[in-house]
Amino acid sequence: MAEAGKPLSGILKIDIADPALKVVLTFEASNDGDEWTPETLAAALAERGLEKRPDHSVLSEFLKKAAASAGKGPVSAEVVTGIAPVQPAPDTPLWEDLPVPEELKQISSDVLDQTPPPVIERTLREPVERETTVKQKSGFPFGKERVETKIVRDTVERQERVYIDPTVQDLFFVHQGALVGRITPRSEGIPGRDVFGRAIPIRRLADPAFYCGPNLQKVRDDIRAGASGFVRVGPNWADLIPFSNHSWSVELSPDKATAFLIFSPGHRALPLPDPEEILQAARELPYPEESLMNARELLQLLTDQAETGTEERLVISSSRDASFDIYVPEDKLAAYLNIHKGKGRGKPLNLRDVGTAIKQSGLKKLNFETIKKDILAFYESNEMDLTSYLLCEGTAPVPGPERQVEYSITFNPPETTEKITSRLEELLREATGGTEDPETPDAPPRVDPEEIRLDSLKEFPADEIQKTAFVKAEQLLCSIDPPTPGEPGMDVYGAIIPAEPGPVAEIILHENITRQKAVIATTRAGVLDYRESDGVVSLRLRPHQDAKIDVTLAEDRMEAWLSLEEGAGTGKLLTREAIDQALAQARVTHGLDHEAIATALRAARASKAGAPVTQITVARGTPPTHQSENRVEHLVGGPSAAPVRIRKDGTADYRSRSDIITVEEGQELCRLLPSQQSAIDGTDVTGSSVPARKLGGFELEIGPNVSRREETDGSVTLCSEIRGELLATAKRIEVLSSHTVKGDVDMSVGNIRFPGAVTIGGTVRSGFYVVSTGDVKIGGGVEGALISSDGDIMIKQGVKGGGKAVLRSKRNILSPFVELATVLAVGDVILKTALVRSRIKCNGKISFKGDKGRIVGGTLRARNGFEVACVGSPRGIKTKLSFGQDYLVADLIEKEEKEIEKVKRRITQVDLEMRKNEKTGATEALETLRSEKIKLLKLMEKRGLRLFTLRERFEQHFPSKVVISGEVHSGTIFESHGRTFEVTSPRKAIAVEFNPHTGNIDISELNGS
């Protein structure tokens, strides 16, 4: 420990954090450092420009602690402190405990949903000037008064809308006049002062006020409810939604002739009172039920009154006003008058209104004298109602001539019709007969009753068929002539009524026929039946389809397939004879499966027509027996290689998988061993011979980059022609120069380390790495992962590193954007949109494609400079751009300095051990230590020389420029060769360069800015 009053040797560090509210001294005792006393410490602090300096005793105490901790590490102490600012606070409400009652919690949501966002206004008082005239009396008794104009200053109040965040943060329920809460008034804040004597400003609140909306009253600092209801509270506002229940009562008029409902509407979200309860209360007054309005009318009355929101005395007795209407039927060929006289409290009938309505109705051919006479007679009579009084009549139109039908099909000759009809009758009789014999399934089947059952046979029997025709699906049968207009009429308003076209001959459509406007067509193929009786035509389409048999052979003729479709209706049905004939025509003679043929026949008969049985294998050839080399001995990997790596402790490592098998150039992959099987010819389904393959071919398919070597024992050895990835299956082997992952790099794939190019279709997930000696192409994005490449790194969807991603490339890195990542590139870093809060070192250029690139936050070093549209943020985020130097050399300098520091510490440790051995007389250990120290000093000299060379290389200047075409925000720092320039106010369109002649950073405006 150093003696009191004597200087203390060591290394001193003065830290002043931002904002400069404290000064921290860190001291580490060392013989290699400077000598320090309280006076030299005070002088060092004075050089930093501090306004307030520590006392001599504080500095003396700090040196004593540092001396006491010598050899134990650095000592830190806070010696000067500033005054921190007190930030302003807005108006802050303290709310009373006003919970929403349980019975109102469910309806409170409806009330909030139905109430629009609050409209908040504040009162502004503004001074205004106005002219006024003042009469001044004369100083003489008979003098005239003078009129003078004066300027008067008044204060005018006006309301201004306050735009707020309408988010509701809390909800209370209060009664009128209740205390809702109290406002803690705003505080203005107190500025601080840092250790340099500079003022530390306080932040200014955009709007410190708390606003009370409708129905809330602010009295001094109290907030009270102006009505009962729900109080909704926002970020800096509150208002009250009035809420009350419905109330009602019933009473009679003084003469007991009229019943009244006194109804005071509550909130609209509440259900209306039950009309039946109100009517029951009126009956109990008592009041006759027949004189009350019904429940539906009362509900409408309540609904209308609730809309007004005011209390009203409503009549609920039934009354009838006088009414009248002019009724014109839809065809407008007549006009009728209905009149109902008024009764009770209803409005009386006004004949003048009736006459005016008739005159303004627009009706033609009115006999006003007769109408007036008849209405007056009704008015003077005892009748209460005049209904369906004929005012006038129109003229009906006359339809056009009958429309003709034109057929577009060719009917069969009579003999064909007779034959088809006889077949139908025969099938109908047969369908009611016996069933198939299960012992003879190949016998011709009886007809399925469902195939010929027609609902129209009762009204259109087979013996009434007059014509037939074979038709196809969706075939046009006939079309109807266009309509011919008839003679138009005239309605009661004098408008022309078009005449309907003439009628068309009646056509009755039965099964499987459709009509679209003037066109009649089929819906399926079959036989059309035609009948005409008394001008009425009947059309029906019944099933008719011959059975279909199709035999197909495989390309190698080793299989024959049979497809069957059963006939329908009067068509030919399937038989075994017809199938055998079709097989013979296809020359299928070998390997016939008769059971399969019978099964297919039964299945086709069981299915409906139009649902064929297809591709049934009914014959198989005899395959040849090949002589081939089909035994494979894998020497590397193979189809059964385990993809999961097992650790030494027996657990599975699912991230570092072993399913990528890397082989070297010339490495043996597998051996193909010869087979002892002899060749035997086969026979196809047509009886032809199929020769067997002789010895000489390999079943294993050999892919690219694999060579074969014939061995003396008859085997074949397969070798890799390149260094790459081995892919081996049971039937194919190949070596790829690149590795491809179709999806994400995650637990299903594991980490990737490959001596070549790597292509990834998805995203590299957090916690995984991709290490490649070639290019790395990533079709998705990169999370908190490591990507290392000896070539380019190309990322399609960007990097969201979360502070964990690391990208290292010996060439270039291309990505749309990079967020929170560490990037190292020997070449360029090319981006598209953004570079956010990242650390980048590259010996090329950092540039953006397009005009929207921006850099926000982080430390970025690029030897050849930057090209970007915008740098920094309006919030002043620190963004540091370094350029013009080899920053990879800077990494080597940092590494060398750490190694030198290790050597220094070891030399210090050796010196201490040598002193101990000198005292104890350990000569042998002392000599060993001296030899080690000599080696360390030589190593120190060697590393020092290397560090000197590296620093000279780092000081070398590389021509570069930072070009920013858009905005440069405050907080942006440019650095080169130890010189810095910080932007303190926003700038636009600048170029930044380092001037090696002056040693300064030059800023220039871009042309056209």
TrEMBL record:
Residues 430-449 are annotated as: Disordered. Residues 169-233, 464-516, 549-728 form the Flagellar Assembly Protein A N-terminal region domain. InterPro entries: FapA (IPR005646), FapA_b_solenoid (IPR046865), FapA_N (IPR046866). It comes from the Bacteria. Pfam families: FapA, FapA_N. This is Flagellar Assembly Protein A N-terminal region domain-containing protein. It comes from Alkalispirochaeta americana. The lineage of its organism: Bacteria, Pseudomonadati, Spirochaetota, Spirochaetia, Spirochaetales.
